[in-house]
Design a protein that fits this description.
- The chain is of the alpha+beta class and about 450 residues long.
- About 55% of the residues lie in helices and about 10% in strands.
- It folds into 2 domains: about 300 residues, ABC transporter involved in vitamin B12 uptake, BtuC; about 90 residues, Immunoglobulin-like (Sandwich).
- About 10% of the residues have low confidence.
Length: about 450
């Protein structure tokens, strides 16, 4: 299967699933109301409600702001945001509601990003679901809906650049495993996003009741859990399928089925509600001049870059890293040279699962933990891998950073709801100029 064909297949799936997934990820924009859409609840054990978490442009919780819910002009209920910015309004049943934010309670200098952004119409609540609501907040007066103001805001640009680098770094450490798996097995692992979710959920259960472990220790154990799950599927399923000569298209379909299975298992175990870790949720942001950043986000960004550096050194300096690159280049030649290819592939799956699990913890810290988080991130991981070059771990890192920065910086001029469209458009433009990706290699076809 050629890289061009793989890119086309992945682009098709990006197009099919981009709508719902982009909406889920959009709830993690640095300025806004978090708690985005939830899955249709398979367990009808909770009443319908609308909820969210109000944060300002600096990601600090905004308390004491009134949120009102109406239906057909009649008020259903209202509440005020708590000290942590959270709010919940129960609704009488499924249907479409209008949610209004009282802007008079917002801090000075904070306003909806667009005119009319304080009123959200036709917010649909499904049976038994708690629907999240997103209010995009920014600094100063609301703009005219185009995403751009009258003069260039260097402070906001710097803030978005920092947010983009952080987001790109999280995508990078999760995309590395996806790229390594493709490089060694030529399999497009559509279930890779679920390893992200498994890591985040495992850390949540370990760090809260009944585990009550420190989140740092829980994150390490979550990496182990995700690595064991990933390696277990390699031994129990992928290796036997390869030994039987199963085609890549068939294995791709199996990966999609596995992703759906794991996602619904997580949904049953974890539930459909978005949840936050108990630690590092509310922190005072450091003012560093042009931008502000919390200690948590700074630590996540630095750790992500340190992990990328460690992976690069492992691939270049260690024996197993050199074996991975050899299998990536030519598995048959590597096997003829005495390399245990099956062992290398198993290590790749374990490493990829561990990195995905840690990326899930980081993503859950900056956004929230929910069953679809891995799938939402998977689309951007695919974009990063294709942009950087199929099978190139270094390319996946660079591609992820480009995707993260472009998606955030685009909100300077365009609505935040389109930010991932511009990131994917950047990928398409690069591929038109360089079809093999930024660090990909040209290959002969035929």
């Amino acid at each position: 299967m050629t890289p061009r064909l793989l890119a086309v297949l992945t682009a098709l799936f990006l197009g099919v699933f981009l709508g719902p997934a982009a909406a889920a990820v959009a709830s993690g924009h640095p300025a806004g109301m978090h708690g985005g859409p939830t899955l249709s609840s398979v367990a009808q054990d909770s009443e319908e409600s609308l909820q969210g978490t109000l944060r300002g442009p600096d990601r600090e919780a905004v308390s004491g702001v009134t949120v009102t819910v109406t239906q057909d002009g009649a008020e259903v209920g209202s509440t005020t945001t708590g000290d942590d910015g959270r709010w919940t309004v129960p609704v009488p049943g499924p249907g479409a509601y209008t949610v209004t934010l009282d802007t008079s309670g917002l801090p000075e200098g904070v306003a909806p990003r667009t005119v009319g952004g304080d009123v959200l119409d036709e917010v649909v609540v499904r049976p038994g679901a708690s629907q999240g609501v997103i209010f995009q907040l920014g600094e100063g007066e609301p703009d005219d809906g185009t995403g751009g103001g009258g003069s260039f805001d260097w402070g906001r640009a710097a803030q978005l650049l920092v947010e983009g680098i952080k987001f790109g770094a999280i995508i990078a450490i999760t995309a590395v495993g996806l790229s390594l798996v493709f490089g060694t097995t030529k399999l497009i692992n559509f279930a890779h996003g679920e390893f992200v979710t498994i890591g985040a959920v495992a850390a949540f259960f370990l760090s809260t009741s009944p585990g009550n472990l420190p989140l740092v220790l829980a994150a390490v154990l979550a990496m182990v859990v995700a690595a064991v799950v990933s390696g277990g599927f390699e031994v129990a399923m992928w290796r036997p399928l390869r030994n039987r000569g199963t085609g890549l298209i068939q294995m791709f379909i199996v990966a999609i089925g596995l992703a759906l299975l794991l996602r619904h298992v997580v949904l049953i175990v974890f539930g459909s509600r978005r949840r936050q870790y108990d630690e590092y949720t509310l922190q005072q942001a450091w003012d560093l001049g042009l931008f502000r950043i919390t200690p948590r986000d700074l630590t996540i960004t630095l750790l992500s870059f340190a992990i990328m550096l460690a992976v690069a050194l492992m691939l270049q300096r260690t024996q197993i890293g050199k074996a991975m690159r050899a299998v990536n280049d030519n598995s048959d030649l590597a096997r003829a040279s005495g390399i245990d290819v099956e062992r290398v592939i198993l290590v790749v799956w374990i490493l990829g699962g561990a990195l995905a699990g840690l990326g899930g913890v980081f993503f859950g810290l900056t956004q929230a933990v929910y069953p679809e988080m891995g799938f939402a991130l998977l689309l951007l991981m695919f974009a990063a891998v294709i942009l950087g070059g199929l099978g190139s771990a270094y390319g996946a890192m660079i591609g992820a950073l480009v995707i993260g920065v472009v998606s955030q910086m685009s909100t300077l001029w365009f609505p935040a709801s389109l930010q991932y469209m511009w990131a994917l458009l950047a990928m398409i433009i690069v591929l038109l100029v360089r079809p093999q990706g930024i660090l990909g290699r040209r290959e002969r076809v035929g």
